[in-house]
Every structure is written in structure tokens, then in C-alpha cells.
Amino acid sequence: MEQRKLIQHGPSSLTFTLPTKWVKKNGLAKGDNVFFETKDNDLVISCNKKEETKKIQINISNLDRISILYYIESKYRAGYDEIEIVFDENKTIQYPSMEESEITSAIHYITSRFIGLEVVSQDKNRILLKRITKEDTQGIDSVLRRIFLMVKDTYETFIELIEQKKFDKLKIIKEKHDYINNLTNYCIRIISLSEEKNYPLHNILTQIDKLVDIIKYVTQDMISQKKVSKESIECFKIIKDSIDNFYSLYYSFDTKTIDSLNKNRWEIKQYILNAEASKFDIINMTRMEGITEIILDMTESRMSMEK
After folding, report:
1. 34-61 burial, b for 16+ CB within 10 Å, e for fewer?
2. What is the DSSP code (8-state) at residue 135?
3. For residue 65, what pLDDT band results from cuts at 50, 70 and 90?
4. Phi and psi, residue 213, nearest 5°
5. Residue 229, φ and ψ in degrees, nearest 5
6. Of 40, 214, 221, 230, which residue is most buried, by most CB within 10 angstroms?
7. Which residues pair with 207 in a beta bridge?
8. pLDDT one-digit tens code per residue, 211-220
9. From the centroid of its chain, how far is CA 133?
10. End-to-end CA distance of the chain, in Å?
11. 121: how many CB neighbours lie within 10 A of its CB?
């Protein structure tokens, strides 16, 4: 912690010099205004820092559709305000179907997944994306809780629908997945833009993305096959305990909950090992087991946040 000596100026005025490093960082010069507020015994000094537009150009030529998504997503998450996208040909491919589509239409669809980002101009071989709304950095806590509750709701809906064999209704899971993805991207962006980088929370949000991806892909198989065994449903219910327990752990840190998470993880492994089910069911149970490994990673991040 730096110290500054107070200098007497007149009968009632005291002054001190501002740290040179802070002045340079914020681009302050003679005549600029600074602002202060008192908080108990603390004096908080701030400035109206001129907001700079963070820009980048990316070339997506020869990329498949999903790689284009990840490329744009990475720049959005990193906090870029303008993303200029250039490409040689207006076509891309979707794996594994090998279906071709226009890059421009793909970008318009992909952009809809990023809160506050819009297509503002488009040419033959170029599209410009721009942030049109400012992020609410103070509202991340409420958005985060919404994400956790949506993950719980998505998984509960998944179990409810497969128990009732309502495979035609499972399409709602993708809608829920996309909504969660929008929110996680938004929160990761806020973390990237903040002065203090919350890397553990960044990792938790990234892992949530992977978690809901697993649910989405298993759901797609259920829609295609229109079948599920009792053994699979029971396995998925056990996994639900891990999702519920991590939610509790995040907001109320308790070592007993951590123990329950690890116990649940090994119970699932043993259950799948002993399960008498079809190849299709074993594959999906094993894929869903990946959720417990993701939660293990999230738990480690939550532990690092505890002080």
C-alpha cells in the first residue's frame, strides 16, 4: 500500500499528489476532473476514463460452421466491441451432415446468441458486428443465479419428459440450452471487461456451457431413437443430485457437500459398470457421467474462491 504525505495549503486545505502510474493509466492531464466519495474512513478517488472501442478483424475463410461460432464467441467473450469478419467465399459447411450454407446467414444466426451484439453492416466478403448496448457489470450476480436455476430446470425437464416418453417434446431442451448459452457468454464477457478478473467464476461458466452441451446431445439421441431404458432414467436421476448439490455449494460453501459430490460421482461410475442395458443406453449413461467430471472441475474452482 502506497503512502502520501498531506501538504498544508492555507488554514483549512490539505493536498496530496496522485500516484504517477495511476495518472498515466487513466490518461489524466492538467485541468482534468477527478471524483471522490467517502466510505467510512476510506476516500475513493475515480475519474471519467474515456472509453476506448476494442476492435478486431478475423478471417473465417475455410472454417466450418461450428468453428465460425467458436471463433466469434471467443472474441465476444474477450470483450471486443467491434468484430470485423472477412471471408473469401460466402459458403461454409456443417459437420457431420456436410450441408453447405451461406456464411452471411450463418453469422446472422450465430450473432443472435450474443447479448448486445448486432450486425451493423454487410458487404460481399465482410460483415461488421458491433456492441450496441453497454453491459450491466453490477447485475452479474442475478444473471449467474438465473443460469444455475435454468440448468436445474433444464435437467429436471429432460428427466420428466423421458420418463413420460414424450420424445417429441424434447426439442424444448435445445431452446433452454441456447438461452443458458446466451447468459453464460454474457457473464464471461463481463468478467473479461472487469478490472478484477474472476478466473474461478470464468471457469465455472465455461464448464456450465459444456454441461448443458452434454444434455443437448443426449437429448438429440433420445429424439432420434425415441427410446430410453429404466436403467438410464435411474442413472440420470442420480446425476441430478450432483447438479443440485453444486448449486447449494456455490451459494453456501460446505465441506460436507463436497464430500457428497465426490460420493455421488463414484456411485454413478459403479452404477454404469454394473448396469444391464443396451449399447445405446450405456453410451448415453457414460456421456451423462461426464457431467459429474465437469462438476468436479467446477467444485475445485468454487473451493479456490473460498477465503
Report:
1. eeeeeeeeeeeeebeeeeeeeeeebebe
2. -
3. very high
4. -65, -45
5. -90, 160
6. 214
7. none
8. 999 999 999 9
9. 18
10. 21
11. 10
